């Protein structure tokens, strides 16, 4: 299962290895005209952004100022997404071991711990 227009890497790899694969496109990402916020926030409150796809990274740079986004720590889920963020000017990038909630939380805890360590010295 994947989103409409999603990458073909897994499908192609499995077919190349002789698998019989049924592919279903079950969701579609829809770009909003502007972000929908679930609560009020201020840029000074944000220290880290967690992005689980290249589309999320691209959307952030379309909606918000690059000069602000590039000052933040970013947690991404793969080298591919790290490369996308890097090409947009992000320099503080951590790659989570995978996209699970547990892995992302552990990576965020590491980023917070590292930031506390640097601020103490």
TrEMBL record:
Entry's Gene Ontology BP terms: tetrapyrrole biosynthetic process
Q: What is this protein called?
A: Uroporphyrinogen III synthase HEM4
Matching Pfam families: HEM4 (PF02602)
**Domain Tetrapyrrole biosynthesis uroporphyrinogen III synthase, chain residue ranges per copy:** 3-106
Query: SUPFAM superfamilies recorded for this chain?
Result: HemD-like
Instruction: Please name the Gene3D superfamilies in this protein's record.
Output: 3.40.50.10090
Q: Which GO terms describe its molecular function?
A: uroporphyrinogen-III synthase activity
The cross-references to InterPro entries, in alphabetical order and at most eight, read: 4pyrrol_syn_uPrphyn_synt_sf (IPR036108), 4pyrrol_synth_uPrphyn_synth (IPR003754)
């Amino acid at each position: 299962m994947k989103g409409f227009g999603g990458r073909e890497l897994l499908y192609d790899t499995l077919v190349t290895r002789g698998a019989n694969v049924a592919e279903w496109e079950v969701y579609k990402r829809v770009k909003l005209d502007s972000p929908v916020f679930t609560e009020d926030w201020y840029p000074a409150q944000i220290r880290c952004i967690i992005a689980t796809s290249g589309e999320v990274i691209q959307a952030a740079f379309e909606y918000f100022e690059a000069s602000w986004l590039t000052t933040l720590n970013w947690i991404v889920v793969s080298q591919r997404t790290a490369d996308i963020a890097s090409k947009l000017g992000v320099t503080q990038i951590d790659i989570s071991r995978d996209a699970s909630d547990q892995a992302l939380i552990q990576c965020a805890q590491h980023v917070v711990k590292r930031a506390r360590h640097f601020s103490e010295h």
